[in-house]
Amino acid sequence: MSFPQSRPRRLRQSPLLRKMVQETALSVENLICPLFVTHGKGVRKEIASMPGTYQLSIDSLIKESQEILNLGIPAVILFGIPRKKDGRGSEAYSPTGIIQQAVTALKDRVPDLVVITDVCLCEYTNHGHCGVVKGNRVLNDPTLELLAREAVSHAKAGADLVAPSDMMDGRVQAIRSALDREGFEMTPILSYAAKYASAFYGPFREAADSMPQFGDRKSYQMDPPNVREALREVAMDIDEGADIVMVKPALPYLDVIYRVRSAFNVPVAAYHVSGEYAMLKAAARLKWLDENRVMMETLTSIRRAGADLILTYYAKDAARLLRP
Predict the structure, then answer these.
(1) Is the pTM of this model over 0.85?
(2) Range of the domain at 279
(3) How many angstroms separate the CA atoms of 133 and 88, rounded?
C-alpha cells in the first residue's frame, strides 16, 4: 500500500514500540574483550593510541577479567607481550610463556570466563612478522609447525578456544591435527579466516609491540579489494576444521561479513579493530561525536551485517549500556 494508508512512522512512536519491532539485537553475549598481557607485577599501562585499553600484568589481568565477567561479557581473547624476542618467536610456544602463564592463572581464578588465545608469532619475533623468515621472505610451511606447537601449548595451559591469526595457508589443518593428536579434540578453533592487510591495525602494533621490522604483511594477509577470495579462504578454513570464522577488520568489510554469513552455516565473528576504536575515541575527545551513541551504532551495524560475535575494545563500555 502507498501513503496515506501505509505509514512506517506508526511503529516508531515510542521507545517500547520501536524495541518490539527491532530487527537486530545486540547483546552482551555477542561481545569478546581483547586484552594485552605482559610480564611484571602491578602493571596497568594505558596504550596511548587506545585510551581505556591497557597492557596488564597477570595480577592486573585477573582483576580486569573478573570485572569483565561481572559485566556479563562471556569471553576474552589474550595477546602476549614477551620479555624477549627471537627469530622463531620461541616464547609463543614455551610452556612458561606469558600467555601460557596468563591462561593458567585465569582458569584458576576466573574459571567461568571463556579464554581465547591469539595464535601467531608476530608479537614474539624480533622481525615482527607472523612466520619464519628467510631473507626477506616469510615462509609458509615451516611456520605451520610452530603455530601448531603454540596452539597445543595454549590448550595444555587451559585455553577454551585457540584463534590463529597469522594467515599462513594450511594453518587450521596443522593446528587441528596437532590438537587432536595431543588429546585436545574438543578444543575449538576460531580462525581469522578473512584477515585483510589493513591500515587500521596501527594502534594494535603499538599495544602489542609487533611492528614488522622490514616490508609489510601484504604477502600473507588479504588484499582489501577482494571479496571472492575471502569466501574461498573461509571455505578452506572450514574444510580444515575451523569451528568459528572471523572477518577482520569489521567496519570497512561489512559487506564481507554479510557475504560470509550468507554463504556458510558456522558462527561468524568480526574484529572491531584498534584503528576503528581509536578513531571514535579521538572524535569523542574532541567532542565531535557522542561516544556512547556512535559506539552502539557501530557495534549494531557489525551485528546487523551478520556477525554472531564481536571482538571489540569497547566491550566493557557497551556491556554497561546493554545491562538491564
Answers:
(1) yes
(2) 24-322
(3) 8
Q: At what angle do helices 228-240 and 171-181 cross, to 10 degrees?
A: 10
Nearest-angstrom CA–CA distance, 163 and 118: 5
Q: How far apart are CA 50 and CA 40, in angstroms?
A: 21
Compute the distance between CA of residue 97 and CA of residue 82 in angstroms, rounded to an integer: 7
Answer for the pair 185, 156: CB distance below 8 angstroms, yes or no.
no
Question: Residue with C-alpha cell 602489542?
Answer: 208
156 domain residue, yes or no: yes
Q: Which residues are catalytic?
A: 195, 248
CATH number of residue 164's parent domain = 3.20.20.70
Residue in the structure block whose three cell numbers are 582489501: 224
Q: What is the pLDDT of residues 239-275, one digit of tens each?
A: 999 999 999 999 999 999 999 999 999 999 999 999 9
The DSSP element (H or E) to which 298 belongs, if any, is helix 291-305
With 0-12 / 13-18 / 19 or more C-beta atoms within 10 angstroms meaning exposed / middle / buried, residue 50 is buried
Total of domains in the chain: 1
